[in-house]
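worker-3 :: picked Amidase
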Amino acid sequence: MTSVIPQGLSEQVRALAGGEVSSRALVERALDRIAETQGTLNAFRRVRAEAALREADEADRLLAAGRRLPLLGVPIAVKDDADVAGEPTAFGCRGEFPPKTEDCEAVRRLRAAGAVVVGKTNTPELGQWPFTEGPAFGLTRNPWNPDHTPGGSSGGSAAAVAAGLVPAALGSDGAGSVRIPAAWTHLIGVKPQRGRISTWPEAEAFNGITCYGSLARTVEDAALLLNAATGSHPGDLHQPPPVDVLSAVRRDPGRLRVALSLKPPFTGTHKHLDPVVRAAVLRLAERLAALGHEVVEAEPRYGVGVGLSFLPRAMAGLWEWSSHVPDRALLDVRTLTAVRHGRLLGGRPLRLARAAEEPLRRRVGELFSRDGHGFDVALSPTTATPPLRIGTMAELNSWHTDRATIAACPYAWPWNVLGWPAVNVPAGFADEDGTLPLGAQLLGPANSEPLLISLAAQLEADQRWYERWPGGVRAGAAGLG
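worker-3 :: tokens ->
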């Protein structure tokens, strides 16, 4: 067997199937890397060392017997809002949470595909913020620059993948929570169509705005994890038609009309697109044009209703999830404020917010309609700023935290209201040293994951983002250090 550990998810799958490496070797390496970095990056809330090694040995037995599954024997991580049997789901909160008796449907599917879940990654309380910090677990740091956050709320998953601890991870996205940390850690982050990955045992998550998604270093790896997790449970409220994301990785997207959108939706608060982010997105737009696509500045017609549709659903979702917390007194005072608002917004305001979704879809959908503008894809910034410094919002009150969050990350959340797919792609760095990653998002209409993945793969072949690693990480990730 090879002494060099393959880095990517697809590479590990191929190496395992070819007998070049064992699942135990991959899992041991992941566990060693987690232990080495936990005191600095702090990516994980729970590590399943003994269970993961047992599962790796079973995967090796199945591989030796000729069994083949899409992810058989590869180590992955999942965010700590996904139920894993035998582990608590604390979702960033303090307190003693009971261990779950069953996997959630997404984790069940990943395990059925053969994946070995090595642990659960850190997330801020109830996934509210674009930073991964909290009294329950401390500070999760960015592998590219430990003075900065990896983003949130899937910041632990992003840090784990960016640092090479695992080849891919499951996150969740309720207002950009997969795409924002992907942007700030130089990763591919896929937010799929609502319902593409089941949220069961919840019929829907946070009143339909939250979905699971994949984080990986390459488009192929993100698509592979997405495909393995995809599928509906009979109890799911949203069950979209199937799409083929795997073959899309190697499919030419054809010549597309791309809407370049730089204007954030209306929120009534101060927002400013940092010039370095603007320049990075414009460079990506130029590359799309060089690849043969027609790129035209155009803006979705969000109107004022998109924010009014988002807020009650998010706040009511926080209120509902807070009922799982053993002691609400342990919650951050900002979380408690949001929970109180959610209790007030959970009745008629929530019903009105949900009723506004379909008219909003029609209005924004005009951007993609052949009767309207006829664009295939939209390109926009993922965030308005480079990665925030650790502790930037630690001492802020609820009002100022919300305003600072909107100012840094005003671009991602409308697609959660719409329920449509989006993919973050790396867009360069904010500094000359290459320690502050930036991202841009490809946005599509309903069920457009194959087109977005195909376009992202074309850009990846041109830009070769995956060749860049955080300083000092690549050798350790590859098993050479």
